[in-house]
Amino acid sequence: MKLFTVQEANDLLLVIRPKLEKIKSQYARTTRLRESAKSAAKAATDSGGGGMESGTHYVKSLYEIGKITTELHELGIQLKDYSRGLIDFPCLRDNRIVLLCWQLGEDEQIEWWHEVEAGFEGRQPI
Q1: What is d(CA 88, CA 16) in angstroms, rounded to the nearest whole number?
Q2: What's the CA gap between 1 and 108, in Å, rounded?
Q3: What is the pLDDT of residue 26?
Q4: Of 20, 31, 75, 125, which has the most beta carbons under 10 Å away?
Q5: Which residues fall within 8 angstroms of residue 94, CB to CB, at 6 or more apart?
Q6: What is the reported pTM?
Q7: Which pLDDT belongs to residue 47?
Q8: DSSP string, 68-83
Q9: Inter-residue contact 77 to 87 (CB < 8 Å)
């Protein structure tokens, strides 16, 4: 597990923000198309047919989400919520691992952290 300093995490925000915006956009698209995809899958199972008008867009969106999620994971960043662009950076604080917490729409700097078990509701100011 990669551990970040607050400065390292802040420095990555410039690179990460556009990726999170893209994930948020693609996730919204897949959410809109999800019912059509379920119907197409059911039709394929029931009758051997299937397909959907926006199938290519749906698959491309899923691919982009997966690709960017993998990129974030490889950097050591934990993606917690696709629709909010919520991420955590593991960090060593007072000799224990905690999570630096940031989401789209917040300031340019990370201002929050929380215990690993506490989650978003347990956020505390840095």
Answers
A1: 12
A2: 24
A3: 96
A4: 20
A5: none
A6: 0.84
A7: 55
A8: HHHHHHHHTPEEEETT
A9: yes
> Which residue type, as a one-letter code, is found at position 28?
A
**Are 100 and 94 contacting, i.e. CB atoms less than 8 angstroms apart?**
no
Strand order in the sheet with 96-103: 78-81, 86-93, 96-103, 112-115, 124-125
Name the stretches of the chain with pLDDT < 50.
Answer: none
Distance, CA of 37 to CA of 50 (rounded, Å): 9
33 — alpha (psi -120 to 50), left (phi > 0) or beta? alpha
pLDDT of residue 18: 97
CA distances from 12 to 4, 6, 60, 114 (A): 10, 10, 26, 19
Q: For residues 76 and 55, give the distance between their C-alpha atoms in angstroms, rounded to a whole number.
A: 32
Do residues 100 and 115 lie in contact, with contact meaning Cβ atoms separated by under 8 Å? no
Of 13, 26, 27, nearest to 75 by C-alpha is: 13
Yes or no: say if 76 and 4 are a contact pair by the CB < 8 Å rule: yes
